[in-house]
């Protein structure tokens, strides 16, 4: 049933709370939602503690539960559509596309040198800038990007869960990538070589 390092439920918050909160905060970008889902994770873990087989560490098991809670939250948030957001595209998303290309259809500016991608992934400043860039995207666009690219949810599952077409999803992801590229070019590429 349990492995020796699982501890007892009364130590879980002290032993794993900060790691779970950090995991949730990076993905949700909302402190209150992150706190709430971490609490729900501990509650769900307590309710299913007897089924924990010990084949993974307790933290890995807790993060697995939290990941599912985050995915469920994303699905709920993305299903909620404000009355003024009933149109097919995100507000401001056409501006992202228009600003990325010149009138002849080519890139509006040359690609910036971001340095070594592996090195960037290890740089805390890169992650903060990426987070800031995600915050500048329309909320739905950012959530879909995180759901697909960070949480690695499949296209078919996202489309089914959110009742959207693959074309709509890929168009939104395309616009999100363009917006992130512009933001990272402006805020990261210039600093990456320093």
Give descriptors for this structure.
Arc Repressor Mutant, subunit A; single chain; 194 residues; Rna Polymerase Sigma Factor, Chain: A; elongated; mainly alpha; 2 domains
Give a structural overview.
- The longest helix has 27 residues, at 166-192.
- The protein folds into two domains: 9-79, Rna Polymerase Sigma Factor, Chain: A, CATH 1.10.1740; 84-192, Arc Repressor Mutant, subunit A (Orthogonal Bundle).
- The protein has helices at 12-28, 31-47, 58-79, 93-100, 117-121, 124-136, 139-150, 155-162, 166-192.
- The protein is mainly α.
Query: What's the CATH superfamily of the largest domain, by name?
Result: Winged helix-like DNA-binding domain superfamily/Winged helix DNA-binding domain
> Roughly what is the average pLDDT, rounded to an integer?
78
Radius of gyration (Å)? 20 Å
DSSP, total strands: 0
List the helices and strands and how they pair.
Elements: H1 12-28, H2 31-47, H3 58-79, H4 93-100, H5 117-121, H6 124-136, H7 139-150, H8 155-162, H9 166-192
Q: Quick summary of this structure?
A:
The chain has 9 helices and no strands. It is mainly alpha-helical and 194 residues long. The chain is 66% helix and 0% strand.
């Amino acid at each position: 049933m349990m492995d020796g390092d699982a501890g007892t439920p009364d130590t879980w918050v002290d032993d794993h709370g900060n790691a779970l909160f950090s995991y949730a905060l990076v993905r949700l970008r909302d402190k209150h939602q992150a706190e709430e889902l971490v609490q729900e994770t501990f509650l769900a873990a307590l309710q299913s503690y007897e089924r924990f087989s010990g084949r993974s560490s307790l933290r890995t098991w807790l993060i697995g539960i939290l990941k599912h809670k985050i995915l469920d939250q994303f699905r709920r948030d993305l299903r909620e559509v404000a009355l003024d957001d009933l149109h097919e595209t995100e507000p401001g998303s056409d501006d992202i596309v228009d600003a990325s290309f010149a009138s002849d259809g080519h890139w509006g500016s040359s690609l910036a040198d971001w340095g070594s991608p592996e090195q960037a992934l290890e740089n805390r400043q890169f992650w903060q800038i990426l987070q800031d860039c995600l915050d500048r995207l329309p909320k739905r666009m950012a959530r879909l990007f995180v759901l697909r690219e960070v949480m690695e949810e499949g296209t078919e599952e996202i489309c089914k869960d959110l009742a959207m077409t693959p074309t709509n999803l890929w168009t939104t992801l395309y616009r999100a990538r363009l917006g992130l590229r512009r933001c990272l070019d402006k805020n990261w590429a210039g600093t990456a070589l320093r």
